[in-house]
Amino acid sequence: MNEINTPTESEAELYPIQPRFHPIHKIPRLIYDFLASAKLAMFLLVAILLCCLVGVTVFRGQRAWDIIFSTLWFNGLLVLLVLNVACCFFGRIWHRRLTLITFGMIMFHLSFVAMFCGVVYNSLYFFEGTMRLTEGETLQNGAAESWEGARFGRFFSPAEIRGETTLIKMHRGYKVGKDDKRAAYEIEVGAPKAKKRDIIYATRNLDCDGFKYLTDREGYSALVVLADRQGRELYGAYLPLQSLKQEDGSYIYSTGTSSAKGSLPFPQGQQKPLYNLQVGFRPFPDQERLGEAFFQLWPYSATAGHQTENPAVVGSAYVGRSMPAGDYGVSVKEMRYWVGMKVRRDPGKPVILGSLWVGLAGMVLTTIGRIRKGSTGVKTA
């Protein structure tokens, strides 16, 4: 049976990198020595620092996340750093007398280890996506086409987003007491038999099965209808309009992108659309869902977008009325709102926040212990 050698006062103090006392031996001890080595600590710190620098300078945004921060090898470096810190400290504190100071230090270092574990767990299992809905629309949460953009951790499964999401209504000028929350979304989310319904705004979100639903942006959605000369409706679709701020501070609402007006194929989803259509809207001051719609139509081209040639048809009509367009008529039958919602899942966040509080408590205990120790020493002297 191997004897355990306790440290003597003459042994050199190598803390915090090289603990002076190892409670394990042979092959496990070799592994322990490797994990607690100064060379490993320096390598890990330099490697993680370089990765972070590359991730914020050379590669940015989603690309940096894909090739660095969400990879297994980067998270493996973080895990090794956690093990390195744990071995360095807890090897040093092993078999020491438990005092208020040592207890505070244990709490602080445990919180450090837990925080990094939470960071790694969160990066591997998180989810973040944007869902766009028009009032009255329902989307399946598990369907890829329901998301305008989504990114998630390497071990996250989209099947975990169960149920569906419905935008019941978008409220403008929503007030809570005397506070104007500007825009609020009335939504319903979850599985059919366990749905949650609530109103969310800038300072309030809805939590359902660990997923948080937050407000992001909103705009008008025009129900554009194509009819024949006899007025029979042939096709209709809700087209989202972008809010474009003008130099005088006013807004215009039009199809296109967030930075410029643009056209799109219409009718959509057909093999041969008839037009490239651009729709604009100017609401009445006292009735935000009513106003005048403006139309520009070009013969269909596969390069729809920002048109340069003159349109074949230009005109306007009030919401609910039709405008002639050759052998057809186009109209905005009604105006609704569309919203873009952020959906987030951060499973490691409670661990990270909890570890910060534990670490703070450990620092407080250590400080109190040192103050008491100092006052005791003064009285003894």
Which labels suit this protein?
elongated; 4 domains; 6 helices; single chain; 381 residues; 19 strands; alpha+beta; seven-stranded antiparallel β-sheet; six-stranded antiparallel β-sheet; transmembrane
- The string of secondary-structure elements, in order, is HHHHHEEEEEEEEEEEEEEEEEEEH
Terminal CA distance reads 46 Å
* Number of H- or I-type helical stretches: 6
Strand content: 25-35%
Number of domains: 4
Uncertain segments of ≥5 residues (pLDDT<50)? 9-19
What percent of residues adopt helix (DSSP H or I)? 25-40%
Number of distinct beta strands: 19
* Main sheet summary: 7 strands, antiparallel
Structural class: alpha+beta
Please tell me how large the radius of gyration is: 31 Å
Organism: Citrifermentans bemidjiense (strain ATCC BAA-1014 / DSM 16622 / JCM 12645 / Bem)
Transmembrane segments: 40-60, 72-94, 100-124, 351-371
Keywords: Membrane, Transmembrane, Transmembrane helix
Protein name: ResB-like family cytochrome c biogenesis protein
